[in-house]
Fold this sequence. Notes:
By secondary structure, the chain is mostly beta strands. Helices cover about 5% and strands about 30% of the residues. Strand 1 and strand 2 form a beta hairpin. The protein is globular.
Amino acid sequence: MPRKAPSKKISMKACKNCGALVPKESNVCPVCGSTNFSEDWEGIFIVLDQESEIAKELKFNKKGIFAIKVSGSYTIK
């Protein structure tokens, strides 16, 4: 029987405006400048090359780590 991998919550919060993940101590989003954050987020999307096909398709023009879903506001579509 396969074992489920242990889950470990990353100690970050997500910007409700753009989905960028930042350390909990941050007060301003380095991507969009927002100060509206949530600790209730799911999934991770890492942009290493903003010129990649997937980054262009998802309209990401900056490198960074982003949440796929942020409670109450942001979702990658």
